[in-house]
Write a structure and sequence with these properties.
Elements lengths: L1 E6 L6 E7 L4 E6 L4 E6 L5 E5 L4 E6 L5 E5 L3 E4 L5 E5 L8 E8 L5 E7 L7 E6 L5 E8 L2 E6 L5 E6 L4 E8 L4 E10 L6 E7 L5 E6 L3 E5 L5 E6 L4 E8 L5 E7 L5 H6 L6 E5 L14
């Protein structure tokens, strides 16, 4: 196994890596900048795009460009500078913002909201359909995170970071409806806080630990299988990419770190690539609208 910092971008709050297999590029966001980054995996060249609002997550669109979960709501983003807000489901909650999100296998974009001050349980889950219809699913989380699915699309993972809980929901893929939920993993104080996650082709769950500097691989039943130390305390999310979907890309953050921590972890806020894991991920689904 090898761990390499492939983009030493020193993001304040790097999050949400998404692999574009058509272009051979990795996208991620810096929520607090706010900005969107992309990496050419062949040349290792990076580019950033400043955006006018905090952006919690992006996903690829079939029509080109990105769909995003931003502070004012769902938006379409063109890399050349266009940002079009298409729905504002929480205009009545000015202290909330969108956080993590992803597309399901039917091309719907899902994202969770959270209290930007990380205090009130005002976070919920939203579904954006290709026709721009928005549906809300009440959650009552303080910090929503990690909206991801297993390979069959019949299990949805959703994280309440503040309570250190990873939830697994039964999921009706055809209807786009979460069902019964259960605790998939409960972290301890020593584990830090669960942040973003991804699911590989064998339904293992790879979860990021904010404050603990690592990734944990869980079996589909929640059993811990492996831990990987990342040279950054605040590990935020991970996603498989690369030509064979066998590279685990990991985003990190610098926010909240002391001068001593930054000296010890100078690449904090960078994006890392973990290779040699012997497993493959799933292709990122694209928004159908």
């Amino acid at each position: 196994m090898k761990i390499d910092c492939v983009a030493d971008t020193k993001c304040t709050l790097g999050e949400g890596p998404v692999w574009d297999e058509r272009a051979g590029e990795l996208y991620w966001v810096d929520i607090k900048a706010p900005a969107i980054w992309r990496l050419n995996a062949h040349t290792r060249a990076t580019q950033s795009m400043a955006v006018p609002h905090r952006v919690g997550a992006v996903a690829l669109r079939e029509k080109g460009g990105l769909v995003a979960a931003t502070k004012p709501g769902f938006a379409f983003i063109d890399w050349n500078g266009g940002v079009e807000v298409i729905a504002s489901p929480e205009a009545n909650l000015p202290t909330n913002r969108f956080n993590d999100g992803a597309c399901d296998a039917r091309g719907r974009f899902w994202a969770g909201t959270m209290d930007d001050e990380e205090k009130a349980p005002t976070g919920h889950l939203y579904r954006l359909d290709p026709d721009r219809t928005v549906t809300r699913f009440d959650a009552g989380f303080v910090i929503t995170n990690a909206v991801r699915w297993n390979a069959n699309g019949d299990r949805l993972y959703f994280v309440d970071s503040a309570t250190r809980t990873i939830w697994a929901y039964d999921f009706d893929l055809e209807r786009g409806q979460p069902g019964q939920c259960r605790v998939f993993a409960q972290l301890t104080e020593a584990d830090g806080w669960p942040d973003g996650l991804c699911v590989d082709a064998d339904d293992n769950v790879w979860g990021a630990h904010w404050g603990a500097g690592r990734i944990t691989r869980y079996a589909p039943d929640g059993t811990k299988r492996q831990t990987i130390d990342i040279p950054a305390p605040n590990v935020t999310c991970c996603s498989f990419g690369g030509a064979n979907l066998d590279t685990l890309y990991v985003t990190t953050a610098r926010i909240g770190l002391s001068a001593e921590q930054l000296a010890k972890y100078p690449q904090a806020g960078g994006t890392f690539a973990v290779t040699g894991l012997g497993t493959r991920g799933q292709r990122a689904h694209r928004f159908a609208g």
